[in-house]
Amino acid sequence: MVMVSPEMDPTICWMFEAEIVLLFHAKTFHKGFQVTVHIGNVRQTATVEAVCGKEELRTGEKAVVVFKFLKHPEYLKVGAKLLFREGVTKGIGHVTKLQPIAQYRPSQSEDDEA
């Protein structure tokens, strides 16, 4: 449950875009990688759906990445700072674009799981 003021223009989403910097990763960071994302009071596992303009990232590189939450949608704001981690992998960035839940169409297999 979330209490949100209507003046905040709340947006709930499954997927969001973020500009990130990969602080450390042992090999390459690519589509399909799962990380724990921290955005304000939100902490949830998300999958990398796309790395815009590149196939993969290495330590120190910047990119725009599309993340998708695994468990449930979250309320986010554009500009919110984020941190993500998984084992020794760490990165930081900020939310640049939200895909509101009304625009998200889950695949048939996701409907079957629910």
UniProtKB/TrEMBL annotation:
| Gene Ontology MF annotations | GTP binding; translation elongation factor activity
Q: What are the alphabetically sorted keywords of the record?
A: GTP-binding, Nucleotide-binding
InterPro entries documented for this protein: EF-Tu_GTPase (IPR050055), Transl_elong_EF1A/Init_IF2_C (IPR009001)
Nucleotide-binding is among the record's keywords: yes
> Where is the signal peptide, in residue numbers?
none
Matching Gene3D superfamilies, A to Z?
Answer: Translation factors (2.40.30.10)
Looking at the keywords, is NAD present? no
Q: Which PANTHER family match?
A: ELONGATION FACTOR TU-RELATED (PTHR43721), GTP-BINDING PROTEIN 2 (PTHR43721:SF3)
UniProt-recorded name of the protein = GTP-binding protein 2
Q: What is the lineage of its organism?
A: Eukaryota, Metazoa, Chordata, Craniata, Vertebrata
The encoding gene is LOC104955829
